[in-house]
Here is the input.
Amino acid sequence: MTAMNDLDALESQSIYIFREAFNRLDKIAMLWSIGKDSNVMLWLARKAFFGHVPFPVVHVDTKHKIPEMIEFRDRFAKEWNLPLIVGENSEALASGMGPHLGRVECCSALKTEGLKQLLSKHGYTGVFAGIRRDEEGTRAKERVFSPRTEAAGWDFKDQPPEFWDQFKTDFAPGTHLRIHPLLAWTELDVWRYIERENIPLVNLYFAKNGRRYRSLGCAPCTGSVESNATTVAEIIEELQTTKISERSGRAQDKESEDAFERLRAGGYM
Amino acid sequence: MTNHSSPMKIVVVGHVDHGKSTLVGRILNETGALPDGKVEYLKEVCEKRGMPFEWAFVMDALQAERDQGITIDTAQIRFRTASRPYVIIDAPGHKEFLKNMITGAASAEAAVLVIDAHEGVQEQSRRHGYLLHLLGLRQIAVAVNKMDLVDFDEARFNVVKAEIVAYLNSIGVEPTYVVPVAARSGANISSKAAETPWYNGPSVLEALDRFEQARPATDMPLRLPVQDVYKFDQRRIIAGRIESGRLKVGDTLMFAPSGKSARIASIENWGGTGIQAVSAVAGQSVGLTLDEQIFVERGQIASLREAAPTISHTLTARLFWLGHQALKVGSRYKLKLATAEYAVEVVEIQRVIDVEDLANHQGAEVGRNAVAEVVFRSKAPIAHDSFIDNPRLGRFVVVEGYDIVGGGVIAEQEGAAERLDHKSTNITMVNHKISTEVRAVSNGHRGGVVWLTGLSGAGKSTISMEVERQLFLKGWQVTVLDGDNVRHGLCSDLGFSPDDRAENIRRVGEAAHLFAEAGMLVVTAFISPYRADRDRVRTIRPAAFHEVYIATTLDECERRDPKGLYKKARAGEISEFTGVTAPYEEPDAPELTVATEGKSVDETVAELLRYIESNFSLSAREQAVGWGL
Here is the structure.
């Protein structure tokens, strides 16, 4: 190789982050939401470890996911031989938790609480999450290795220093780290990388009858956007002109002005 | 056609109220980074409220918009000029100033330092300039702002310019440009202003476009810090990121500080084109296989033999301190340099630097947010470069407890350092056919010396014999060297004078390390009352030496008096008896302290066993991958 382009640089940095976490932390797992970002993250993990995924891939099932997502999950978990762990907050599900009881409440119970239960059950000290700085304001302030309290809370007002690629890998017992290999990527970078590497995706991202999903979550809270983009190349073209935000279709963010900040401070991804 | 080059990262710094936000707001406006109608809308709002419009409001407006779901990154704002994309890194001030400023500024490739034409150079102007330079930023443009408040007076501009240039030059920075601007009116932001006919330099945006993009350091000597060694399948892959230089299949790599060499057999990758790479350059995260199964582990640095890194036990560094507790001489920390970690001690604070006037102060400690020149000593040799030679191998962070509490850049060293290819007193050069690593993998544990020290009757012999028994039952290669026992043989010619005690400990230390090199875990049970004697044993092989203080009070030892020695000493029958008629010097910073009082022998034994197993066992991971073999 003679020179690296911008995607090569992003890829190399993400691989570096994966390898740091794998070496420094005892029990790690990767959150796999089945969305485009976590598929890219999974792809990067396989690059970092030469085709292997040497830690569990965790999916928190809210039972409200779009059926195509579950089909995709089960198909590729098998095809790629992934150590898949599916978790859920069965207590909340049994009590009938759903978005009709409040979107933020539902997210907190089924996603955040479901995740916390999974973390404590398996004793994970590090969890990879595919969030990006450009997605949303509170994520913009994140660190690559981001500490969480015993209650999984995020203290965004007093974050550790992080420079020279020396990450915080020491932490008190009971606390854990969220690790963000895609933090420096933009939505456009993700799609250009999907195109370059030919990464498989749930077909919900591609337009059908003039609409497509730009961001995937649970069926009741995820809306589609107007679009005629039916291929990755067309999506890339669309993104270079759009002024609409990526999470515009995600209803739980809009319950109140600080809904997302509250979700994240409580331990949401 | 969109240009997809990586964005140029710039940081905007300056004294409070010198117009940093206004300048950023203006830049975003002039480059079309703001949504349509935003500025008009804000002007309208200001008019309605009867307040003057401020460009700084643009930043606040972005903040508000963010909450409404528009994709704008407040920590890292993107914009582009005709020639390339940029990211402005927002390095906020306030309480946690230095920590956040460093987190932001350390990743920037260039900086704009904003100075108020009216107020001139202020404390934060100097502090920011100093820290940018310390972080290794070499491209700094200066914007002398608020020129409208001084009627665009050339003489005033020249005064401020001379002042900041003199300061920057004194710390070794040559600013790329000093631009007179009025961010509020937009003068000299994107094009030359009519108000400054006497100025012939570039506008702010032109000055940004003239910054050079950081290039991966491909033309520097090869440095590949080993991040990990994988053995997921039949391949044994050395993984790491090339920090500088380049490599190709067939190159002979030398690993520092071990000095072992092997040739690159292949460059492994997955996905992509599927074509096997034959070369790689700085910036790439790579995986290599070697033609020989030499011992390699995380923290070692691969280089080419003709340009190897420096190796030394001491580092002199310029340090910025973020810790809540002051750094002091004698303090111990973990130092992280590239992928390596070292236990270090502060041996000297050479000077504490006042960034205001660059005056040097003698200081016994370095407080939060201070800058100082400090000497660290490590137990193990550190492979590194000076910051000037190679920034990526010439910088480190300091960890205390769970937190990063400082960062430092390494000064060029005279005398103390050795090159790997030179003969060195610090490095074991003897080549056994069976390496330490092979022994460790075969035994399932590392060899080493667990040195128990404490008063007579503290429990050293009792504990060590039980630890030996239990480890032996687990299949360990273990032995105990006991004070009374060696005095019957190896040291039967020695008495108890300080000199004889020193010689006794020296012999035992050498013998213990020989056992350790043979792969054994050696537990020693000697009073070893003098700190200097124990430290001398440590220096034989610092990485293998673990000092354990068996802490039992003199009263308790005397009460136990298992051999009746205290009674004899008190009766004057034994001269120079430790604790009674001879001193005992407690360890300053032992690897482990085991207090025995109020605990059963089983409990103290379990405590020591836990320590030994967690420090000498090969982890399941190391065993699976053959501990780097």
